[in-house]
Amino acid sequence: MSGTTPGLHSSLVRTTRATYLAVLLGALTWCGALLAAPLCTVDAAQVTGPSRVLYGFFHLICHQIPERSFFVFGQQVAVCIRCSSVYFAFLFGTIIYPLVRSVDYPVIPHRSLLLAAAIPLIVDGLSLGFLLYDVTAISRTLTGILFGIVLPFYIIPSAQQGLSELLRSPQPLSIHQQKGLSDA
Amino acid sequence: MPNKPNVLLPALYGGIIMGVVSAVPGLSILNCFCCAGIMLGGFMAVFFYKKDLTSAMPPLSSADGVKLGALSGLFGAVITIILGKMIYALMGGVESEMILNMLDSVGVKGSLPPEALSQLEQGGDPIGFFQIVSNFILCPVFGLLGGLIGYSVLKGKQTPPAPPLAPAPM
User: What is the ipTM of this complex?
Assistant: First the structure.
């Protein structure tokens, strides 16, 4: 942010913080909805009301096979173990993000870390199809957590940089403006 | 310096990939991996856009990733709905049959909740009002994530930002 006026700098910081909060709020809402589906279920034999809507919504993106799902108070979570692990680890990664990286100055880590975190998840997912090894709930959970916890460290700074660029004035700053002086 | 190419065409290509993966029976299983098919569309939109950039143009920016991901998600939602309707009109509930066969072969068909099982056995139109609304939420959100992942992976070397400028003394 060197070479920017203090006003512009504080506006950028506000944008990056707001972006972080938006991602955190989004992840909280998403994970809350995953848990709300089983928690809103009154009668296990007949899912109705908000639970039905939530299970229906998440059915579009997950097979919801009970054998491959976590259970909360005897009710199935709205997505499978692998998806739950990714989403809850993403939420955890977003919560701890300010402890590891500066929220105000977004820097995207090298892509090798993301690829290293994705490979076990992909291998574990493909192993089921090709029967390479016995895929268990533990392998689904661990590979999901590994990928999910790394993801916010790419998503948050990319979104922060992207929104800052989109909201910034398209006109480049003049030398006077960069020095904090008026053009007049 | 020449201007950057238009984002519409790469976003449309990404949307087509998203729509095909989400609507074609069998391929749509990819979305069971945390909407991987939808994210792939956002990622590919960034990939196609980067291919159009020449060395004389400004480099790929994260704002491009945001725009391409969200736009491809919107295109993807529309294409998924149209393609899903067409496939259902031509082939009927093929997807439900495929899912039931797959669940049967894995041996978990019997353990499905009765409502989910009857829904699959009826094999109704997969694109109702609820699915249309859901598609317009899921595709742009996961497309955006795909676009941001695409930017993170495909961008060149990034110069770390310099420390902030201290405010001028009053």
Answer: 0.80
CA distances from A121 to A60, A68, A134 (A): 21, 15, 14
In a mutational test of the B interface, the residue from A161, A163, A166, A167 whose CB has the highest number of chain B CBs within 10 Å is A161
| Cα-to-chain-centroid distance, residue A166 | 21
Q: Note whether B63 contacts A166, CB cutoff 8 Å.
A: yes
Here the tokens at position A105 are: 């100055």
Which residue's structure tokens are 């001028």? B168
pLDDT in tens, B107-134: 666 666 665 666 666 665 666 788 889 8
A88 vs A124, higher pLDDT: A88
Cβ-Cβ pairs closer than 8 A, A with B, add up to 121
CA dihedral B91, B92, B94, B96 (to 10 degrees): 160
> In B, which residues are within 8 Å of A2 by CB distance?
161-165
> Which residues does chain A have within 8 Å of residue B47's beta carbon, measured at their own beta carbons?
none
Helix B8-23 with B129-154: angle, nearest 10 deg: 120
Which regions of chain B are under pLDDT 70?
A: 1, 93, 95, 106-127, 157-170
Say if residue A176's pLDDT is above 70. no
Residues A140-169 have pLDDT tens digits of: 999 999 999 999 999 999 999 999 888 875
Q: In this structure, what are the phi and psi dihedrals at residue A76, rounded to the nearest 5 degrees?
A: -70, 135
Q: With CB atoms and an 8 Å threshold, state whether A165 touches B163.
A: no
Domains of chain A, by residue range, sit at 6-169
Give the mutation candidate from A14, A46, A58, A61 for the B interface (greatest B CB count, under 10 A): A61
Half-sphere exposure of A184 (CA within 13 A, CB side): 0
Rounded to the nearest angstrom, the minimum Cα separation between A47 and chain B is 8
